[in-house]
Each structure stands twice: as structure tokens, then as C-alpha cells.
Model the fold of this input.
Amino acid sequence: MKNIDTPCPSCSPEKKEKKVPVRVIVSIGEKSLRIRTLLSGVIRVGDELVIDDEISGVAYPVHISSIEVGDKRKESAQADEIKTIWARAIDEVVVKIAISHRETTESIEMKVPGDREFIIGEKIKVDSRELKIIRIKIRDSGFKSRKGVVIKASDIKRIYAESGQREPRRFSKAGERIVIKKRESVWSLKTKKTDL
Done:
């Protein structure tokens, strides 16, 4: 008679954790969807998951931005402890672009896949216009302006770009060319003298 080793289904370390229903509020552009989905294990802020809506059957790739346990916000929690998850859809995102024209700034938006990458210093085409990326504001973080840095669209709060269009030449009534100089920022630091 041979002995055969088989794992116990109820006490095996490979046993899958039970999935529990969790409420997820997904931001898609300007609107929000309330979804019930089944999750298990530890969920963390910053995780990227695919959330299946049990009612509609639609799947949403999302980025977890906040987790509510009881009446507190936490950085991570077990699925069965979570009251609500706030997330934003990342399959298609709206990227806001600020275009500087010397004294004025123009704001436009473009829809792109969430995994589309933007590179600081690259030229991009938006509505038949060519723009050069000079700086990117990252969600929940600071600015990146070093040439060559790559950032996914789903992580971008705003792109700052230059149009490359030159200002038209201006002439005075006497026919002399008027040159508009860019004003430099002036910073002053006031120090308080203290007696030692």
C-alpha cells in the first residue's frame, strides 16, 4: 500500500482567502460610480486593481486613492475590514495641459489611455498643434522638470507646455521695432535682527 501526500483543503497554506463584498467609489473624469465588488487580502493606497462591478459586469482598471475603515482613513487594510474604497479609473484619463504664451496661459484637455507615457522635453501633437512638454505636476506629489523623465498619464495632474509659436513682431508708429522683455521674478528676504 502506497502513502500519498495530499494537502488539507481547510488548513493548507495555499488556501485562497475568502472574497468579501466591498463598496468602491470610482471617479471617471467628472463623474463618480458606486460599485460593489468582491475583494480579498490586504488592499493598499496606491494599488492598481481591476474592479469588477457585480451588477453590470463591467471591469474598471483603477488606482486606489483612499481607504475608509470604520470612520477613519487608513493606508492599508484587510478587505473584510474596509467600509469604502475611493479609486480613480486609469484605463482612459483626461490630461490637463497648460500652454504658456508669454503673458497668457491657455488650458486644454486631452483623453488618453492611462498607461500612455509622457516624456519631459518631448513634442506632442494635440489637435494639429505641436507642443513641447517643459514640466509635469504629478498627482499627490510635486513637479518634475528634468528632461527625459517619463510619467504615465494616470499619474499626471497637469502638463505644462510651450507652443513654440513666436510672438508677432510689433512696431511703433515711428516704425521702430518694440521688444517686450520677459519680466524676471524678484525675491527679497527680510531678516530680523536680534540682540545677542
User: Anything to note?
Assistant: The first strand starts at residue 20 and ends at 28.
